[in-house]
Amino acid sequence: MTSLLPSETRRGRTAEQVRDDLATRRPLALVATAGGLAAATSTLLVCLAMGVAGWFLTDGGSHGAPRDGLRTGALAWLMGHGSGVRIEGTPVTAVPLGLTLLCAWALWRIGQRVGASVSGHGPDADGVLDGRRDLVVPAAGLLLTVGYVATAVVTLTLASTPATAPSLPRVVLWAVLLCLLVGVPAIAVGSGRAAIWAGYLPTTVRASAHVVRRVVVAWTLVSLLAFVVALVVDLSTAANVMGQLGGGGGAVVLVVALGLALLPNAVIFSGSYLLGPGFSVGTGTLVTPGLVVLGPLPAFPVLAALPDDGPTPGWTGWLMLLPPLVACAAAAWSQRAWPTAYYVEGAVRGVAGGVVAGVLFALAASVAGGAVGPGRMADVAPFTFDVLLHALTSFGLGGLVGGAAMTWWQRRSMPVEVSLEEPGQ
């Protein structure tokens, strides 16, 4: 902290003023660790409340005790962190990504607050430009991770039973990855370091990252729309399944809540279908635009969105044109914010953004499936490797065409003197 004195003094502040400022700063260790605890417990409390509510809705509290509802809510929270559970001896490893996204959102919001609270620590902007090492974000991220992981470990210890057997290594791994991929960037953004670091990146890298964001968002929306349309088309089947479940309004509420928790999984399955490789809903099954092979399925309303068994209509093959078209439009739209007059620059941005977006979608597909029941239902997942190949090809080519086409359009609309500038100026 004393390294801050010279640069602050150069800007006209006395040493006494600097010391007073340092004395009012919140302790980094306390703020970051408390942030990790708060991020974990905020979503855990929501799951615990839902577990108790579900316990009352299903049997009116006539069976068991409230602690059974609390344990169910805690296990649901752990499943959102990849723990998996055993239900009557059957392993269930599928991750409800809706809960995972809820935890990630809470971690992002609290991580930004932690970053804002610790932004005054470390060297100032002048010190960073002078080459001083700034370890505020790594230190705060490490402590945030410790608080989050500690909460997860304690929760698993209290909620675990020999019958359920959630996996401790998987929970720790998922918690650490959430903190690294969401919590640390949130601290960097909240503390203002991210804006400083981004200024050192080449224009091509920043523009390509913008393309990645556009492609991922556009493809997510298209996949969600496809899933909703498929479900609405066969809404009567979903309603019949809901009627067969029985249990009154309480069961309906629980089924809807479970469907919302699995909605991101369904969107990823939908995107895998549109890319071409498709997915399986059981051992020996196949759901693709060209062929659908199904068998007996569980009574779950979301499964009404599946296409009919057997050969598909001829028009479904044209759905595979959607991925490159979406990537092309997203890359072109992104380049409106990052214009360039050089074809190579535009093409590189588009293809790089499309390829990275394809890798990200394949990674999401790799965690979207898992075992959801006994027997054949132990294999419910997208065909991840094929999804990766199709996503790389479709998004990469679409981004290439979109970047090059927008470059051509921008060259026509730019003055001659602007089009002669070097890339990035």
Overall pLDDT level: 85
Distance between the termini: 37 Å
Structural class: mainly alpha
Q: Tell me, what's the shape? A: flat
Q: Tally the helices: what do you get? A: 17
Portion in helices: 55-70%
Low-confidence stretches: 1-12, 16-24, 416-425
Strand content bin:
under 5%
The topology string of helices and strands comes to HHHHEEHHHHHHHHHEEEEHHEHH
Would you count the extended β strands for me? 7
Description:
By secondary structure, this protein is mainly alpha-helical. The chain is built from 17 helices and seven strands. The protein has helices spanning 4-10, 15-23, 28-59, 66-79, 97-117, 125-129, 136-159, 168-191, 193-198, 203-233, 235-245, 248-261, 263-275, 322-335, 343-368, 384-413, 416-419, and strands at 85-87, 90-92, 279-281, 286-287, 291-293, 310-311, 380-382. β1 and β2 form a beta hairpin. Mean pLDDT is 85; it is low at 1-12, 16-24 and 416-425.
